[in-house]
Inverse folding.
């Protein structure tokens, strides 16, 4: 196959494109299937993935077919009965946008003309959608890098010159005790040290306590520490709790402390009439982030960081490299982001908003919220099931009550059995010491029938696990 030793598809390009489109259509049709579990790995796949480096190519069609089989034998979050992790549901038009962006592979470190305009416009659109007054922002790989970027800007504002001289000790960051572990990672990476993250107690609704936060800030200042930032969570990964943003924001304004809202999962719900009031005070923050590859349905990776003032990002990241000259009043995009080499992440979200319109997203997120309410009602009405905590957004933590034996052990075994069964996919969580099932609904394809099927399968498989 000498031709396959040459890069590029050449005369086979149209044939490969036809096959590639066909495989996309097959994948999208399969998402109408309820099969979400971990499929068994075939012998053919095991043989393929154990092979040596190929010296001669197999051609585009065979290679694409192999790739499609590998994906089909992997855990697919796009299926409507996948209730496991908070992940994308693979919006079709955004998948196509990814292919277009990858084909052109524009350079986003330097000024890239239309691509720059698309990024800026999409940042404005996202800010408008959730109700945050963003004047600038950046696209990232996800919540981890978004939080890291925001806290780097907060550190430089509170401790000017720290990026040059180093941090030393004394700077502290506050987050609720149930904040995502990415906050802890960011604090570590920034050189502040894990002990610089001060966990704030939560109230009965699992939200950060503003009173406790105020007391901690006062005590830390008295001890000579410097509060750098408060990270409020808009939709915790464990239960979907939304911290009280307005009192936290007012406290941060009065104390001149950077407020970052980590809305990686939950922030899109701010655009809905059902959940919007929970996000009151978002506009007081200095920065906010969301992962569009979660509840805005586009494929990974598409994190969005919104900021009030781009100069804060420039103060934290600008280098003015000699190999990237610019006019005095001009800035390259790399001057306000961590990444030099980054994909054109904005295009998929820009195209999704342009094709479907913001209202379609509000309605889809609203349907997910309604489905979570339906699931909670079904659990409440079931004597063999127990609602562990009242849902705030679209996470519904519940567990099955076994007739005998340890409920925690039973529900852990039940989750494993459900994953092996394959009709629904659910993971576990530990809430207040209780092991429970933790379905999360962030898929625009999920329906009432899928939610009802979840309850039926939990009952059926749970009885089998108990009898076994």
């Amino acid at each position: 196959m000498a031709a396959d030793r040459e890069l590029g598809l050449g005369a086979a390009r149209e044939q490969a494109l036809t096959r590639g489109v066909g495989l996309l259509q097959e994948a999208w049709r399969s998402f109408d299937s309820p099969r979400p579990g971990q499929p068994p790995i075939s012998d053919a796949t095991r043989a393929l993935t154990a092979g040596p480096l190929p010296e001669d190519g197999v051609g585009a069609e065979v290679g694409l077919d192999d790739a499609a089989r590998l994906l089909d034998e992997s855990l697919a979050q796009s299926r409507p009965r996948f209730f496991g992790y908070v992940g994308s549901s693979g919006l079709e038009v955004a998948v196509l946008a990814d292919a277009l962006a990858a084909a052109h592979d524009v350079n986003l470190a330097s000024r890239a003309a239309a691509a720059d305009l698309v990024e800026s416009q999409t940042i404005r659109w996202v800010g408008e959608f959730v109700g945050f007054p963003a004047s600038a922002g950046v696209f990232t790989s996800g919540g981890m890098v978004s939080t890291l970027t925001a806290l780097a800007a907060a550190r430089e504002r509170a401790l000017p010159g720290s990026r040059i001289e180093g941090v030393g000790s004394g700077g502290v960051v506050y987050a609720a005790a149930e904040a995502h572990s990415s906050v802890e990672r960011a604090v570590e990476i920034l050189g502040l040290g894990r002990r610089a993250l001060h966990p704030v107690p939560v109230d009965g609704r699992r939200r950060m306590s503003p009173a406790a936060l105020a007391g901690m800030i006062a005590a830390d200042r008295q001890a000579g520490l410097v509060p750098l930032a408060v990270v409020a969570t808009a939709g915790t990964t464990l239960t979907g709790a939304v911290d009280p943003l307005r009192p936290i924001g007012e406290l941060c304004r009065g104390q001149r402390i950077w407020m970052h809202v980590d809305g990686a999962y939950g922030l899109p719900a701010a655009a809905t009439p059902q959940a919007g009031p929970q996000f009151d005070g978002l506009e007081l923050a200095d920065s906010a982030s969301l992962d569009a590859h979660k509840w805005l349905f586009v494929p990974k990776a598409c994190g969005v960081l919104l900021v009030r003032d781009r100069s804060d990002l420039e103060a934290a990241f600008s280098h003015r490299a000699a190999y990237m000259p610019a006019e005095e009043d001009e800035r390259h995009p790399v001057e306000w982001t961590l990444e030099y080499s980054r994909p054109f992440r904005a295009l998929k979200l820009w195209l999704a908003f342009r094709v479907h319109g913001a209202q379609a997203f509000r309605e889809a997120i609203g349907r997910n919220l309604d489905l979570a309410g339906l699931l909670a009602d079904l659990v409440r009405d079931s004597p063999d099931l127990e609602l562990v905590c009242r849902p705030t957004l679209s996470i519904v933590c519940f567990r099955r009550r076994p007739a005998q034996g340890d409920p925690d052990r039973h529900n852990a075994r039940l989750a494993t059995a459900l994953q092996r069964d394959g009709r629904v996919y659910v993971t576990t969580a530990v809430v207040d010491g209780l092991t429970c099932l933790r379905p999360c609904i962030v898929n625009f394809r999920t329906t009432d029938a899928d939610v009802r099927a979840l309850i039926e399968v939990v009952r059926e498989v749970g009885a089998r696990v108990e009898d076994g």
About this structure: The longest strand covers residues 226-233. The chain is about 45% helix and 10% strand. The chain has two domains: 28-50+59-91+357-468, 107-356. Residues 358-380 form the longest helix (23 residues).
